[in-house]
Write a structure and sequence with these properties.
Largest sheet: 5 strands, mixed, barrel
Order of helices and strands: EEEHEEHHHHHHHH
Structural class: alpha+beta
Number of helices: 9
Strand content: 15-25%
Radius of gyration: 19 Å
Helix content: 40-55%
Number of strands: 5
Amino acid sequence: MIGRLKGKVVEKNTNYLLLDVNGICYEVFLPVAVMQRLEDDINTNGEISLVTYHYYQVDPAKSIPVLIGFANEIEKEFFLSFISVSGIGPRAALKAMNQPISLIAKAIHEADMDFLRTLPGIGQQKARDIIAKLQDKVGKFGLIKDNLTKEQLSKDGNIIEEAVAVLMQLEYKKSEAMQMVKKAMERKNGVQSTEELLNEVYKQRMLK
């Protein structure tokens, strides 16, 4: 089994890399949560080292080897925990991990069904199963520094303040406005403007 690869990135797509390892190109799939931070791990020569999970995708007529990559062993360990939940295989876990691992771990620890249901392919029953299986086992993953950079924190802080101020002008209490904005930020990571955040708050209210 292939447990680690180090090579040059020759192609980067939305969910996979082509990695040249001594003239052999490997296709390595990455969760969105890992892909979003990839640039920090590529050195000046365009090389990267990935911890990999190697399995065989079995179809009726064939068996296909698949590699899934992670920046470190902790990320892989979280993935292995995720696929230990009944009904969640490697492909489903790869698709579901489209938010920072620390946020997913936090949602599991806090039994936040609403957040977990926003993950692709995770419905209400699977969210329940994830919480039941992993709630007391994900604390350390919540400490991963994969959520926001200082610049993003500053920008998001300003957006949050502006959104709360607008909601208070609309006669919501501050505590209520803060809770609405918090849930909207959890539902949609990477909000770029106050208007976008308020639109997400509105959508959230319409779902109730």
